[in-house]
Amino acid sequence: MAARIVDGKRVAAAMRAEIRERIQGLRRDNRGVPGLAVVRVGDDPASAAYVRSKAKACQEVGIAAREIGFPGFVPHDELVAHLEALNRDAAVHGILVQLPLPPHLDERAVLETVDPVKDVDGFTYANIGRLVENRARFVPCTPAGILELLDREKIEIAGRRAVVVGRSEIVGKPTAMLLLHRHATVTICHSRTADLAAETRRADILIAAAGRPRLITGSMVTPGAAIVDVGITRVGGRLVGDVDFDSVAPVASAVTPVPGGVGPMTVAMLLRNTLRAFEMGLGLGPAERSA
Length: 291
Ligand code: NDP
Prior knowledge:
The protein has ten helices and eleven strands.
């Protein structure tokens, strides 16, 4: 059996088209334009590239994106004061702080400054708490993108065994929580897991989010499993996932490629969360909201 290759680029493009159409409709009704502020500290080239791609995606769908760059040595209080001003700014519906921050800044304290109703990354304690209770306001973008891909590919979740490799706050834990809410039986693996292959072989749905190139090989996968590769590592100028595609694809039923799998979905979910923040600000309830 050869796995279906899940085209995240195509799915993300379809989502962007839906979001653009919704924003155009709101504009036609004179409801205004969603605004996203992206805050970046320092001059890390990878962060700068991510921020650029997010700004471009915003522009394409009609979200007004504002990039606010600070030097790497910005004092904590100055950064916090800017975030507080963005909280008050009526033209800004979503605020994103590009991580990681330089070590002199207290990342948690900075994130907690963001008003939870503008926290489109879903990283504030208020939004994490809501996610745990299955009453999410904003689901972190990569986990949300993973679930959206599974849904749009019609991969059944309820009642199935899901194994998540990785337990970070940004990817592993929230993804496991979402799968649990959707009634999967979830196992979370990490660097201290005694026998990783024994765990992954039990998975009907395997989410690889360890950041270890080609960690998951064909012999670690049960025939017919659906595999989502979240990992991105630059190896010799190329982006490499956590899944050894060549050995896994003949065994699995579906597999997401790197690049072109989860990555584009992450950006699409940021756009969706920003639209959601905007619609919440307009007082549109879940029934009238688009996504
Ligand atoms: P972290 O480094 O924060 O977490 C990695 C997790 O993997 C940790 O829980 C770690 O365990 C676990 N791990 C590491 N090595 C192994 C191993 N050999 N076996 C089992 N578990 C292991 O990374 P992130 O969660 O932030 O990101 C994971 C990957 O996803 C990265 O490659 C990142 O670049 C990518 N990513 C991709 C995105 C996209 O849009 N496609 C978005 C965000 C991230 P322990 O806790 O014990 O240390």
